[in-house]
Amino acid sequence: MEAEGWLLDVYPLHDRMILWIRTDRGKLLRLEDPFHFLIYARGKKGILERLAETAVQKGFASGYFWDKKKELQSGQEVEVLALEVSDYDRLPGLLRKLPFLEEAVSFFNCDIPLGQYYLYSRSLLPLGRCGVEFAEGQVQAIHALDSPWDLEYSVPELSTMELSFEGSNLLPLGKGNALSVRCDGDRKTLVFDPGSPEDLLREINLLLKRYDPDFLLTDHGDSFIIPSLLRLSQRWRVPLQFDREPTPIRRAIVTEGRSYFTYGKIVYNGPDYPFFGRLHIDRENSFFYSVTGFEGIVEAARLSKIPVQRLARRASGTAISSMQLDRALQDHILIPWHKGEPEKFKTAWDLLVADKGGLTFQPVMGMHDDVAEIDFSSMYPTIMVRHNISAETILCPCCPTPKVPEAGYNICEKREGLIPRTLQPILERRKKFKARMKNSQGAERELYSRRQTTLKWFLVVCFGYLGYRNARFGRIEAHEAVTAYGREKLLRAKEISEAYGFRMLHALTDALWITKPGMTHSEVLNLCAEIGQATEVPIELEGIYKWVIFLPSKVKKDFPVANRYFGAFENGELKARGLAFRRDDTPPLIQEAQLKMLDLLRACEDSREYREKSREAREILEDYLTRLKTGDLKNEELLIAKSVRQEVSEYKVDNLTALALRQLEEADIHIHPGEKVHYLIRDSEAKNKEERVRPFPFVSADDFYDEEKYRQLLLEAAEEVCFQVFSPLSTSGRRGQR
Questions:
Q1: How far, in Å, are 431, 456, 464, 489, 708 from residue 426 at the CA level?
Q2: Rounded Cα–Cα distance for residues 135 and 54 (Å)
Q3: Among 3.40.50.970, 3.40.50.1220, 3.40.80.10, 1.10.132.60, what is the CATH number of 627-736?
Q4: Are β-strands 16-23 and 38-42 bridged in parallel, bridged antiparallel, or unpaired?
């Protein structure tokens, strides 16, 4: 039999892959595809032969053969042993034994997730179209019907069910919480009172059977809803029918996710609860969903060949790494199990010269009229492509000519690097999406916007992964080479701007703020063309500000900071960095107040009008100060959200965050590092420390709040946008009574 349709889901089961395909005729197929997972080993032939024979005897491998593959650093073809894993369930046990042989044997392609490896090998795309020949549920042949690089592609219509809750995810079901189920078919919302758990579980199963959704969308599903329901299921012995897979799936109930440090902050990823045969995405546990919606998830999954549910729960770095893995497999390059290329020895002087990072010019503090912002388009990825920077091309032995500015590193001229080959089509694709976005509107424009935003995040993280110590295709010298080229190009842009009579007010890594009396759009665009030609990196006009303000440091009022500014473009659009309304720890009431002030001020045409209108902002400020004093607000509007950086027991100082966390801990509610704790400041100077804060969800309408503390925060937010116009108002009062 033959069929065409969309690949909905794919996952491993023992010694085969399970595929769920939604056909063009609306039928759902479950097919099995026997697939040999291959790992490769390189070393002395005698040792490899003994390894292969032992692996087969012990049941880890069903067979083996000799193959030819390319080595990453040299690009040379080498002979390797290919082991066919007998059963996917045996793979973890095999991988635990291999490290004992690593002194004599190098292993490759060992730990690629099975679903991804299968999609790489078959050139299939998650939610991509495919044609399949099958008999008795077994795949005989399968091939993709579209390419990941198609600009236009269709996505199947997926029946949808939404699971959410009414209350707080910090409280158990039945104790301040009820489950809400929204079914796409009748658009009705049903609320269950979990007073009778068995009835609740049977009702969920009934809805799953009746609507048979392809796609479940949840809020806190991974961390709260699914584990809560699974506990009820085990206790009351009512199996839940979340999966379409007929083979029973044994799930461990996991409530602990993973906290890790990245880019200067702690990030928390919740546990994973994918379903088998249908899709489950937790909106609160998906980076891609939060920034690009489902359209971005589809775009990222197609390009990276990561199954949709896994991709939704991973960051953009995982996606770009998967594209590199796919590129390597298509080019028959061995993928190292562990990174083996050490950092080149450097003296202190070498480090001083090469390891500088991006270039920043301190801004000219204060307010400026008629300022143009010009930005290099995807500067670092473009540099990697243009200058062929990759782990295997930097410091290559065959091309000794120094090329990298300052550092003097050489770069291979004979072969194109893996990283440039991966990035080039992404850059071109994003450029095309941005062009289509400019020429469309409404839903079509939003679709292109989400797709190009997805690619933007791919390009943002690709540079960081060059210097990541555990990146398979990373190397610190490649990372340093990119920043060296970046510094050179930013300096060149500054010189050209000044040669054309512009004054530079600020520059930050890949952007410049420039001004010139009487400048026009065409003049700035001509400048961009000149800079782009000279630097070989496209540079675009972000916009011309009617006015822009570069703010001082919050600690040293006479000292400028690089990334704290705001301004209004000629079309009235506001751009702001580092203001209170953009910070997660600012209470909603204060965010709202500052945004109202900015909404008033962004209509101003120049600095003179801004100063005049800033005085009107005092009226907005007075209104919010009055609301604080009279209590004309909800306590939820005053909640402060702080990221937790460590475990509760590790806090040595009783700050407000630590006090809130301890109160939650006493109530058996654990907040992980990387998550946020929300609390109300009741009295920041109370002798009884427990009275200083009240954590959510224990905040009630009867709680008083520290009026003076919130008044101070409000005044600071007002001063940020009107710092040149008035001094903070005097403060008075202690607490606001509800």
A1: 9, 9, 17, 22, 51
A2: 35
A3: 1.10.132.60
A4: unpaired
Q: Can you give the pLDDT at residue 733?
A: 46
pTM here is 0.92
**Superfamily classification of domain 353-578:** B family DNA polymerase, palm domain (3.90.1600.10)
What are the start and end residues of each CATH 3.90.1600.10 domain in the chain?
353-578
pLDDT of residue 190: 59
Strands 215-218, 160-166: pairing is: parallel
* Beta strands in 167-311, from DSSP E residues, in sequence order: 178-183, 189-192, 215-218, 258-262, 265-269, 279-282
Q: 2-144 maps to which CATH number?
A: 3.30.342.10
Provide the b/e sequence for 301-328 (b: ≥16 CB within 10 Å): bbbbbbbbbbbbbbbbbbbbbbbbbbbb
| Dihedral sign, Cα of residue 238, residue 241, residue 247, residue 253 | negative
Pairing of strands 106-108, 539-552: unpaired
Cis peptide before 697 (omega within 30 of 0): yes
Task: Check pLDDT > 50 for residue 142.
Answer: yes
- Topology (CATH) of 160-330: Nucleotidyltransferase; domain 5 (3.30.420)
Intervals of CATH 1.10.132.60 along the chain: 627-736
Whether the CB-CB separation of 185 and 194 falls below 8 Å is answered with no
Q: Give the separation between CA 152 and CA 260, rounded to whole angstroms.
A: 37
Q: Give the model's confidence band at 730: pLDDT under 50 very low, under 70 low, under 90 confident, else very high.
A: very low
* pLDDT surpassing 60 at residue 731: no
Task: Tell whether the model's pLDDT for residue 727 goes beyond 60.
Answer: no
Q: Is 733 helix (H, G, I), strand (E, B) or coil?
A: coil
- Within 8 A by CB and 6+ apart from 354, the residues are 346, 406, 407, 409, 477, 480, 484
pLDDT at 185: 57
> Can you tell me the mean pLDDT for 619-639?
95
Alpha-carbon span 467 to 120, nearest angstrom: 25
Q: Could you tell me where in the chain the CATH 3.30.342.10 domains are found?
A: 2-144
Single-letter code of the amino acid located at 422: T
